[in-house]
Amino acid sequence: MGTSFGRGGATTFQQDLANADCILIQGSNMAECHPVGFQWVMEAKARGAKVIHVDPRFTRTSALADIHVPLRAGSDIAFLGGIINHVLSEEKYFREYMLAYTNAATIVGEEFADTEDLDGVFSGLDREHRSYDHETWQYDGAEMQAASGQRDQEWNARTRRGASVREAGRGEAHGSGGAEIGGEPRTDETLQHPRCVFQILKRHYARYTPEAVEQICGVPQEKFRQVCALLSGNSGRDRTSAFAYAVGWTQHTVGVQYIRTAAILQALLGNIGRPGGGILALRGHASIQGSTDIPTLFNLLPGYIPMPHAHTNEDLDTFVEAEGTRKGYWGNLRSYLVSLLKAYWGPAARPDNDFCFDYLPRLTGSHSTYETVMAQLEGTCTGYFLLGENPAVGSANAKMQRLGMAALDWLVVRDFSLIESATWWKDGPEIESGELRTEDIGTEVFFLPAATHTEKDGSFTNTQRMLQWHHQAIEPRGDARSDLWFTYHLGRKIREKLLAATMAESTSDEQRERDRPVLELTWDYPTKGELDEPEAEAVLAEINGWNAKAEPLSSYEQLEPDGSTACGCWIYCGVYKDGVNQAARRKPTSEQNWVANEWGWAWPANRRILYNRASADPDGKPWSERKALVWWDADKGTWTGHDVADFKATKPPDFTPEEGATGPDALTGTDAFIMQADGKAWLYVPAGLTDGPLPTHYEPQESPFSNLLYAQEHNPVRHLLPHKNNRLQPSGNAPGSEVFPYPLTTYRLTEHHTAGGMSRWQPYLSELQPELFCEVSPELAAERGLDHLGWATIVTARTAIEARVLVTERMSPLRVQGRTIQQVGVPYHWGPNGLSAGDAVNELTSMVLDPNTHIQEVKALTCDIRPGRRPRGPARLELVREYQQRAGITDETGTEV
């Protein structure tokens, strides 16, 4: 969504689902995984909305939907692409909205070649290096950026040391904003030019017919056409449809493109920025959104500012020139970054030292969690902190995670209980198999008990970008401490040791310079109580920011590029407005309007629906009274309405910028997508993604079918991490694919949480879901001799696990490419520790990643399933080797472009 609309966050909020006329839930079992938010889906249904659930399994969400559409795991782009084809060919798009607010009329350069021309790949593919050169994807008349992840390759061209300034598109890699656009691209408002985005879309999706959808997805044509009719019939001036998705979409080798397909649909139908519309990204738990805003991601600074790369002689001006945009709010990048540097280093950050820009860490390449595992195995990563993560059972190819940790010098685990990532060295599967011996493992493991959310103050940033404050109820027990306590006091002790070293005569000037960035950090937070717990509100105040008079800021519009403001995260600026913790507000719904802006605080600027300028027509009038949200009040000279306008409040609809204007001042009065360099929603992405400007159906890394649409089987630039313990399986028509005939998908349960670290130690939850199980259809049970409530062994090229058998009609057989296909569903919450123990499903999965976000593909793989319990000890290894030999698996299997 970052490349499509300008920000990576959900475009709407859960309560607004009640205003939808149609809701499509895909890639999510919302009723069971987000049950509190699902009440608003039920509210919409009570008001007459139609609910569609697209999912391989029939779940509680399906049971409450008007239509359940079972489809083959990993085929979602074909399904959504078919709906796009229907909308375009049947002229069901909202033309006025599309012309005003999307890039449909923009003309693409004549060098661009589509998948329709090149049988499944785009122009610019470098097969040797498994990457795309984006140059031919650009607009006609514009010079644009490199794709995300390729920023470093065009440094000379992007800075003063080259011919022009180009940045790598932030896109999904950076979570916010599309690429810079140099010049003014050509457009055709008639939409007739053969190279305009609209016509390219029509050609690209022409082959995604109802017949193709049926053959690829297993969805009957009649049911597919019913979905098309409901979505298109509930979109337009007076009606809106909403999409909701979760990790069922993201955890694929084309996960970003799944979401892109929904973004195209919603922009064509005119559903972005409007009540009852939008795309709701359902995050996995309370503060997943917060962990990307103030990031735990390796390539980001707070507020989705890109992390600098390790270039020589890169100064602040060069970085801003390369990373900022001429038009839109990213044109103010210098203000956001300088204010962040002032929050980090305070008085030490001065104009004469580039505000300590050189103190920031530098990227030397991709350092995703899975590449970190490879670095551990290679010996280049020797220490590891695990805070709220349990990779020993929770990450793809869990065996590789444990082997990586076994190669470390030290490992720190902070958690509520002794999770598998803290005990693998004595009781992990590799100890049982003999692959590892405890006495040979050199890793020093430190387990530090963590405080729960009831034992500390702080905020959650939930799935709809809303910060809600929670107050400490009780003191932590024993040695348990909060994350804030741990981080603050660890930093304090490190600084004390460095300061002592600095005072020593034996310390060299080089060492003193090396330590200066840590010693000059602002680290003077007040503490409270016997435990010296840092004041969480003081951290929130710093994140909000203040001016030179130490007065709290109220908006990121106040941030300055000269060092007179400090702000720890520019998109959170305003959360401590007037010195009041806005996240702690709890005004009842009955005392405010339906948007409820005074419950908590949402970034940015407390807007609840992003891009809401698009809820009004180009003249500033609501598209309809029924769907009014914000509108232009000519008498008062301001935007007004139910929500905070996602637009400069005093900018009239007919505003035209002066020649040479930059930043927000360069946006016209109809540029609704203010984070984009052209102010438009992008149906076609000319730069910003590594794997193509348009979503294209590719088969998962492991699939029982070949690609029906193109000769290109898989995403050609998917991220592979070859290793002897990360073997891949043959797919499609390749010899050996029949050894692993069944698609497998993973999912979660209401009773357990992610990798189980918070739930498998709870007796009530363990009683409700006591054992790992697999869901299979009656037909598959008969085919493979599986007994209900008996045991089954599930095998992939990585390992074999065991699970109880649940024979259920919820897993319905599908007819795909002329044959019946059975699917296996397995929840992923288990591991060997806790009250409810079992094999970890992530043992089965491989480390193959989406190239934009480095997210693993665990929602669609293939397996074999057989009756009985798995072998123990070395016998399990022998079973897997036997399968590998039968399938003819080598180091090269599955690695082809």
UniProtKB/TrEMBL annotation:
Entry keyword annotation includes Phosphoprotein: no
Stretches the record annotates as Disordered: 144-188, 648-667
The keyword Oxidoreductase is assigned to this record: yes
Subcellular location: Cell envelope
Ranges where the Molybdopterin oxidoreductase domain occurs: 15-416, 448-488
Pfam family, one: Molybdopterin
Record keywords, A-Z: 4Fe-4S, Iron, Iron-sulfur, Metal-binding, Oxidoreductase
InterPro entries xref list: Asp_de-COase-like_dom_sf, Formate_DH_Act, MoPterin_dinucl-bd_dom, Mopterin_OxRdtase
Cofactor(s), by name: [4Fe-4S] cluster
Domain spans labelled Molybdopterin dinucleotide-binding: 744-860
Major place of residence: other
Similarity section: Belongs to the prokaryotic molybdopterin-containing oxidoreductase family.
NCBIfam families per the UniProt record, alphabetical: formate_DH_Act (NF041513)
Record protein name field: Molybdopterin-dependent oxidoreductase
Species the sequence originates in: Amycolatopsis acididurans
